[in-house]
């Protein structure tokens, strides 16, 4: 059962990201502040939900949240920053977009850098424990999936609409056959035996 609040502060933002382990596309982060009467029986860690349920939740979260923000850190910036810093930067940018300043921030995972002067707490598997982090995980995942489906049209041979840029066997096979695209992360090991891939 997900809890609504960690800190006791009324304006508590939850933040999470999607796409850290992908070979292509952006890291997408989201931040959400929920009202204290928020509930939805489907809400859970986005990884535990079907695509259909995530799609159902997204408009509900956007309509009922007190504030939400979503940010994209594209592959060039992921390469520049490294994926952990890209995730934290994405979370910061999502919090920046909130129309209400949070009094406290709860973060999925165990790494974060302070945002302004606002107190925060990192929570391992927070997306399976707290509603605002779960809501942020649903937004990050649905926005990212939508983007990957869009760029799939440009490069259908990688089947991003299905694998969403994750290192599936099929995705790696396509990289082996067709090489890397501008959407691939150059700092990632795209192929297991990769010594030097022509980029």
Write the layout of secondary structure elements.
Layout: E1 12-18, E2 27-33, H1 51-64, E3 67-73, H2 75-81, H3 83-97, E4 104-108, E5 119-123, H4 131-152, H5 160-163, H6 169-178
Parallel strand pairs: 1-4, 4-5
Antiparallel strand pairs: 1-2, 2-3
Helix pairs in contact: 1-4, 2-3
Structural commentary:
There is one protein chain. This protein is an alpha/beta fold and 199 residues long. The chain contains six helices and five strands. It has a domain of 136 residues: Nucleotidyltransferase, domain 5. A five-stranded mixed beta sheet has the order 3-2-1-4-5, sandwiched between helices. Helix 1 crosses helix 4 and helix 2 crosses helix 3. It starts with 11 loop residues before the first strand and ends in a 21-residue tail after the last helix.
Please state the second-level CATH architecture of the domain at 12-147.
2-Layer Sandwich
Mean pLDDT over the full residue set: 95
Distance between the termini: 46 Å
Decide which structural class fits the backbone: alpha/beta
Number of strands: 5
Q: Are there runs of 5+ residues with pLDDT below 50, and where?
A: none
The coarse overall form would be globular
| Strand content bin | 15-25%
Number of helices: 6
* Strand line-up in the sheet with most strands: 3-2-1-4-5
Q: H/E series, N to C?
A: EEHEHHEEHHH
**CATH homologous superfamily label of the domain at 12-147:** Ribonuclease H-like superfamily/Ribonuclease H
Portion of residues in helices? 25-40%
> Which CATH class of the domain at 12-147?
Alpha Beta
Report on the biggest sheet.
Answer: 5 strands, mixed
How big is the Rg? 17 Å
For this structure, the CATH topology of the domain at 12-147 is Nucleotidyltransferase, domain 5
Subcellular location: Cytoplasm
Family: Belongs to the RNase HII family.
Organism: Tenacibaculum caenipelagi
Enzyme class: hydrolase
């Amino acid at each position: 059962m997900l809890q609504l609040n960690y800190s006791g502060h009324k304006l508590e933002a939850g933040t999470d990201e999607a796409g850290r382990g992908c070979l292509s596309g952006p890291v997408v982060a989201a931040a959400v502040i929920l009202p204290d009467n928020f509930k939805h029986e489907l809400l859970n860690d986005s990884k535990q939900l079907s695509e259909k349920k995530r799609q159902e939740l997204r408009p509900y979260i956007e309509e009922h949240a007190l504030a939400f923000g979503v940010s994209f850190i594209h592959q060039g910036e992921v390469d520049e920053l490294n994926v952990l810093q890209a995730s934290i930067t994405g979370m910061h940018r999502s919090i920046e977009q909130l129309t209400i300043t949070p009094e406290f921030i709860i973060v999925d995972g165990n790494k974060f850098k302070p945002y302004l002067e606002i107190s925060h707490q990192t929570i391992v598997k927070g997306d399976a424990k707290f509603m605002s982090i779960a809501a942020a995980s649903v937004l990050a995942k649905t926005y990212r999936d939508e983007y990957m489906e869009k760029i799939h049209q440009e490069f259908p041979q990688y089947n991003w609409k299905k694998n969403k840029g994750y290192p599936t066997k099929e995705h790696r096979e396509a990289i082996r056959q067709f090489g890397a695209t501008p959407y691939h992360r150059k700092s990632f090991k795209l192929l297991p035996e990769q010594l030097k891939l022509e980029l």
